[in-house]
Write a structure and sequence with these properties.
Blueprint lengths: L1 E6 L6 H4 L2 H8 L4 E6 L12 E2 L9 E2 L1 H12 L6 E10 L2 H7 L4 E6 L7 H6 L3 E4 L8 H13 L10 H5 L17 E2 L2 E2 L9 H19 L11 H9 L14
Parallel strand pairs: 1-2, 1-6, 5-6, 5-7
Antiparallel strand pairs: 3-4, 8-9
The structure holds S-adenosylmethionine.
S-adenosylmethionine binds next to β5 and α6.
Length: 251
Protein backbone atom coordinates (compact mmCIF):
# COMPACT_ATOMS: atom_id res chain seq x y z
CA UNK A 1 0.00 0.00 0.00
CA UNK A 2 1.25 3.47 -0.82
CA UNK A 3 0.37 6.33 1.52
CA UNK A 4 1.04 10.00 0.77
CA UNK A 5 0.67 12.60 3.51
CA UNK A 6 0.44 16.32 2.77
CA UNK A 7 1.39 18.67 5.58
CA UNK A 8 3.10 21.94 6.35
CA UNK A 9 4.89 20.20 9.25
CA UNK A 10 6.67 17.19 7.71
CA UNK A 11 9.17 17.24 10.57
CA UNK A 12 6.48 15.87 12.88
CA UNK A 13 6.45 12.46 11.19
CA UNK A 14 9.86 10.71 11.28
CA UNK A 15 9.86 9.61 14.91
CA UNK A 16 6.50 7.89 14.44
CA UNK A 17 7.07 6.48 10.96
CA UNK A 18 10.63 5.32 11.67
CA UNK A 19 9.87 3.17 14.71
CA UNK A 20 8.37 -0.18 15.57
CA UNK A 21 5.65 -1.72 13.41
CA UNK A 22 5.40 1.20 10.99
CA UNK A 23 9.11 1.02 10.32
CA UNK A 24 9.05 -2.74 9.92
CA UNK A 25 6.11 -2.56 7.52
CA UNK A 26 8.02 -0.08 5.37
CA UNK A 27 11.23 -2.11 5.55
CA UNK A 28 9.32 -5.18 4.42
CA UNK A 29 7.82 -3.26 1.49
CA UNK A 30 4.25 -3.60 2.81
CA UNK A 31 3.76 0.15 3.11
CA UNK A 32 5.40 2.92 1.13
CA UNK A 33 4.73 6.03 3.22
CA UNK A 34 5.73 9.41 1.80
CA UNK A 35 5.40 12.70 3.64
CA UNK A 36 5.24 15.82 1.48
CA UNK A 37 5.68 19.47 2.38
CA UNK A 38 2.79 21.46 0.92
CA UNK A 39 5.06 24.50 0.69
CA UNK A 40 6.85 22.76 -2.19
CA UNK A 41 3.73 23.44 -4.28
CA UNK A 42 3.52 27.15 -3.52
CA UNK A 43 4.53 29.66 -6.19
CA UNK A 44 5.33 32.77 -4.17
CA UNK A 45 8.60 33.78 -2.56
CA UNK A 46 7.27 33.29 0.97
CA UNK A 47 5.84 29.82 0.25
CA UNK A 48 2.44 30.88 1.54
CA UNK A 49 -0.03 28.11 2.33
CA UNK A 50 -2.66 30.10 4.28
CA UNK A 51 -4.53 33.37 4.07
CA UNK A 52 -7.11 35.41 5.97
CA UNK A 53 -10.71 34.22 5.83
CA UNK A 54 -13.20 35.91 3.53
CA UNK A 55 -15.88 37.54 5.64
CA UNK A 56 -13.43 38.44 8.37
CA UNK A 57 -13.04 36.83 11.76
CA UNK A 58 -10.00 35.38 13.41
CA UNK A 59 -7.61 32.69 12.28
CA UNK A 60 -6.24 31.71 8.91
CA UNK A 61 -7.46 29.29 6.26
CA UNK A 62 -5.32 26.95 4.17
CA UNK A 63 -5.24 28.06 0.56
CA UNK A 64 -6.60 25.72 -2.09
CA UNK A 65 -3.93 26.13 -4.80
CA UNK A 66 -0.99 24.28 -3.17
CA UNK A 67 -3.29 21.49 -1.98
CA UNK A 68 -4.85 20.91 -5.41
CA UNK A 69 -1.45 21.10 -7.12
CA UNK A 70 0.14 18.64 -4.68
CA UNK A 71 -2.67 16.09 -4.87
CA UNK A 72 -2.84 16.28 -8.67
CA UNK A 73 0.91 15.82 -8.95
CA UNK A 74 1.11 12.96 -6.46
CA UNK A 75 -1.85 10.92 -7.68
CA UNK A 76 -1.05 11.39 -11.38
CA UNK A 77 -3.60 9.58 -13.54
CA UNK A 78 -4.60 7.18 -10.79
CA UNK A 79 -7.89 7.20 -8.90
CA UNK A 80 -6.73 7.57 -5.32
CA UNK A 81 -8.90 8.22 -2.25
CA UNK A 82 -8.10 11.69 -0.93
CA UNK A 83 -8.79 11.85 2.79
CA UNK A 84 -9.10 15.09 4.69
CA UNK A 85 -8.45 14.85 8.43
CA UNK A 86 -11.11 16.99 10.06
CA UNK A 87 -13.10 16.99 13.31
CA UNK A 88 -16.16 17.22 11.05
CA UNK A 89 -15.46 13.90 9.30
CA UNK A 90 -16.88 10.44 9.89
CA UNK A 91 -15.61 8.94 13.12
CA UNK A 92 -12.54 6.72 12.73
CA UNK A 93 -13.11 3.18 14.00
CA UNK A 94 -11.54 -0.24 13.55
CA UNK A 95 -14.11 -0.91 10.82
CA UNK A 96 -12.96 2.17 8.92
CA UNK A 97 -9.32 1.09 9.37
CA UNK A 98 -10.17 -2.32 7.90
CA UNK A 99 -12.01 -0.66 5.03
CA UNK A 100 -8.97 1.50 4.21
CA UNK A 101 -6.68 -1.55 4.02
CA UNK A 102 -8.57 -2.52 0.85
CA UNK A 103 -7.09 0.47 -1.00
CA UNK A 104 -3.83 0.29 -2.94
CA UNK A 105 -3.17 3.96 -2.30
CA UNK A 106 -4.31 6.67 0.10
CA UNK A 107 -3.62 10.40 0.19
CA UNK A 108 -4.06 12.29 3.46
CA UNK A 109 -4.41 16.06 3.77
CA UNK A 110 -3.49 17.53 7.17
CA UNK A 111 -5.28 20.77 7.94
CA UNK A 112 -4.00 23.57 10.19
CA UNK A 113 -5.37 26.87 11.52
CA UNK A 114 -9.14 27.12 10.93
CA UNK A 115 -8.93 24.31 8.39
CA UNK A 116 -8.83 24.17 4.58
CA UNK A 117 -10.65 26.28 2.00
CA UNK A 118 -14.08 24.72 1.46
CA UNK A 119 -13.37 24.12 -2.26
CA UNK A 120 -10.77 21.52 -1.27
CA UNK A 121 -13.44 19.61 0.60
CA UNK A 122 -16.03 20.02 -2.16
CA UNK A 123 -13.95 19.28 -5.25
CA UNK A 124 -10.84 17.32 -4.28
CA UNK A 125 -11.49 15.32 -1.14
CA UNK A 126 -13.26 11.95 -1.40
CA UNK A 127 -13.46 11.10 2.31
CA UNK A 128 -13.32 13.02 5.59
CA UNK A 129 -12.15 11.37 8.78
CA UNK A 130 -12.23 12.52 12.40
CA UNK A 131 -10.29 10.64 15.07
CA UNK A 132 -12.68 11.78 17.79
CA UNK A 133 -14.90 14.51 19.11
CA UNK A 134 -12.19 16.94 20.12
CA UNK A 135 -10.14 19.51 18.22
CA UNK A 136 -6.44 19.08 17.54
CA UNK A 137 -4.15 21.88 16.40
CA UNK A 138 -3.54 20.10 13.12
CA UNK A 139 -4.26 16.98 11.12
CA UNK A 140 -0.76 15.51 11.52
CA UNK A 141 -1.42 13.57 14.73
CA UNK A 142 -4.73 12.38 13.29
CA UNK A 143 -2.99 11.19 10.10
CA UNK A 144 -0.44 9.29 12.20
CA UNK A 145 -3.23 7.62 14.18
CA UNK A 146 -5.05 6.53 11.03
CA UNK A 147 -1.88 5.37 9.26
CA UNK A 148 -0.75 3.36 12.27
CA UNK A 149 -4.14 1.67 12.69
CA UNK A 150 -4.31 0.82 8.97
CA UNK A 151 -0.73 -0.32 8.40
CA UNK A 152 -0.66 -2.73 11.37
CA UNK A 153 -3.58 -4.54 9.71
CA UNK A 154 -1.68 -5.19 6.48
CA UNK A 155 -0.84 -8.90 6.21
CA UNK A 156 2.72 -9.45 7.46
CA UNK A 157 2.95 -6.17 9.41
CA UNK A 158 2.65 -7.77 12.86
CA UNK A 159 5.03 -10.39 14.16
CA UNK A 160 2.16 -12.47 15.49
CA UNK A 161 -0.49 -12.54 12.77
CA UNK A 162 -3.49 -13.44 14.88
CA UNK A 163 -2.85 -10.56 17.27
CA UNK A 164 -4.70 -8.00 15.15
CA UNK A 165 -7.70 -10.29 14.77
CA UNK A 166 -7.92 -10.66 18.56
CA UNK A 167 -7.38 -6.99 19.41
CA UNK A 168 -10.09 -4.94 21.05
CA UNK A 169 -12.69 -3.82 18.48
CA UNK A 170 -11.49 -6.25 15.79
CA UNK A 171 -14.08 -8.75 17.01
CA UNK A 172 -16.57 -6.12 18.11
CA UNK A 173 -15.55 -6.77 21.74
CA UNK A 174 -12.85 -5.46 24.05
CA UNK A 175 -9.97 -7.85 24.55
CA UNK A 176 -9.50 -9.53 27.92
CA UNK A 177 -6.50 -9.11 30.26
CA UNK A 178 -2.93 -10.20 29.50
CA UNK A 179 -0.25 -11.46 31.91
CA UNK A 180 3.45 -12.18 31.60
CA UNK A 181 6.24 -13.26 33.99
CA UNK A 182 6.70 -13.16 36.97
CA UNK A 183 4.05 -15.61 38.08
CA UNK A 184 3.79 -13.88 41.45
CA UNK A 185 4.25 -10.11 41.58
CA UNK A 186 3.79 -8.31 44.91
CA UNK A 187 1.51 -11.10 46.01
CA UNK A 188 -0.68 -10.92 42.88
CA UNK A 189 -0.76 -14.20 41.03
CA UNK A 190 -1.41 -14.98 37.37
CA UNK A 191 -4.77 -16.83 36.99
CA UNK A 192 -4.29 -20.57 37.24
CA UNK A 193 -6.06 -21.35 33.98
CA UNK A 194 -3.41 -19.50 31.95
CA UNK A 195 -0.76 -21.81 33.39
CA UNK A 196 -2.73 -24.97 32.83
CA UNK A 197 -1.47 -25.61 29.29
CA UNK A 198 -5.05 -26.59 28.46
CA UNK A 199 -5.75 -24.71 25.22
CA UNK A 200 -9.52 -25.14 25.21
CA UNK A 201 -9.84 -23.91 28.80
CA UNK A 202 -7.57 -20.94 28.06
CA UNK A 203 -9.62 -20.04 24.98
CA UNK A 204 -12.88 -20.25 26.94
CA UNK A 205 -11.46 -18.15 29.78
CA UNK A 206 -10.24 -15.50 27.33
CA UNK A 207 -13.59 -15.35 25.58
CA UNK A 208 -15.48 -14.99 28.86
CA UNK A 209 -13.05 -12.28 29.98
CA UNK A 210 -13.56 -10.38 26.72
CA UNK A 211 -17.33 -10.57 27.18
CA UNK A 212 -17.09 -9.55 30.84
CA UNK A 213 -14.79 -6.63 30.12
CA UNK A 214 -17.00 -5.41 27.29
CA UNK A 215 -20.07 -5.69 29.51
CA UNK A 216 -18.34 -3.71 32.26
CA UNK A 217 -16.78 -1.00 30.11
CA UNK A 218 -18.60 -0.77 26.79
CA UNK A 219 -21.97 -2.55 27.00
CA UNK A 220 -23.06 -0.53 23.95
CA UNK A 221 -20.74 -2.73 21.84
CA UNK A 222 -22.66 -5.88 22.75
CA UNK A 223 -25.66 -4.79 20.71
CA UNK A 224 -23.63 -4.99 17.48
CA UNK A 225 -20.92 -7.60 18.22
CA UNK A 226 -20.87 -10.92 16.38
CA UNK A 227 -21.68 -13.39 19.15
CA UNK A 228 -22.26 -17.12 19.37
CA UNK A 229 -25.19 -18.63 21.25
CA UNK A 230 -22.72 -19.64 23.96
CA UNK A 231 -21.49 -16.04 24.22
CA UNK A 232 -25.06 -14.87 24.66
CA UNK A 233 -25.73 -17.43 27.39
CA UNK A 234 -22.62 -16.32 29.26
CA UNK A 235 -23.60 -12.67 28.92
CA UNK A 236 -27.08 -13.34 30.26
CA UNK A 237 -25.48 -15.18 33.21
CA UNK A 238 -23.28 -12.13 33.78
CA UNK A 239 -26.39 -9.96 33.97
CA UNK A 240 -26.61 -8.45 30.47
CA UNK A 241 -30.22 -7.68 29.62
CA UNK A 242 -29.71 -5.63 26.47
CA UNK A 243 -30.26 -6.54 22.82
CA UNK A 244 -28.06 -8.67 20.53
CA UNK A 245 -27.26 -7.87 16.90
CA UNK A 246 -29.23 -10.80 15.52
CA UNK A 247 -32.26 -10.57 17.80
CA UNK A 248 -35.30 -11.63 15.81
CA UNK A 249 -33.20 -13.47 13.19
CA UNK A 250 -33.83 -17.21 13.29
CA UNK A 251 -30.63 -19.24 13.69
N1 LIG B 1 -12.03 25.15 12.67
C1 LIG B 1 -12.06 23.74 12.48
C2 LIG B 1 -13.43 23.20 12.86
O1 LIG B 1 -14.05 23.78 13.76
O2 LIG B 1 -13.88 22.21 12.28
C3 LIG B 1 -11.00 23.04 13.29
C4 LIG B 1 -9.62 23.29 12.78
S1 LIG B 1 -8.38 22.45 13.69
C5 LIG B 1 -7.83 23.69 14.79
C6 LIG B 1 -7.04 22.37 12.56
C7 LIG B 1 -6.91 21.06 11.81
O3 LIG B 1 -6.67 20.03 12.73
C8 LIG B 1 -8.11 20.62 11.02
O4 LIG B 1 -8.16 21.23 9.75
C9 LIG B 1 -7.87 19.12 10.90
O5 LIG B 1 -7.03 18.81 9.83
C10 LIG B 1 -7.16 18.81 12.20
N2 LIG B 1 -8.03 18.20 13.22
C11 LIG B 1 -8.44 18.78 14.36
N3 LIG B 1 -9.18 17.95 15.09
C12 LIG B 1 -9.27 16.79 14.41
C13 LIG B 1 -9.91 15.56 14.65
N4 LIG B 1 -10.64 15.35 15.73
N5 LIG B 1 -9.77 14.58 13.73
C14 LIG B 1 -9.04 14.78 12.60
N6 LIG B 1 -8.41 15.95 12.32
C15 LIG B 1 -8.51 16.94 13.20
Amino acid sequence: MRIDILTIFPEMFPCVLDASILKRAQDKGLADIRVWNLRDWTTDRHKTTDDAPYGGGGGMVMKPEPIFAAVEDIRGEEEVPVILLTPQGRRFTQTVAEELTQQARLIFICGRYEGVDERVREHLVTDEISIGDYVLSGGELAAMVVVDAVVRLLPGALGYERAAAEDSHATGLLEGPHYTRPLLFRGWEVPEVLRSGHHARVAEWRRRQALKRTLERRPDLLATARLTEQDKRWLREMGYHGPFADDGVSQ
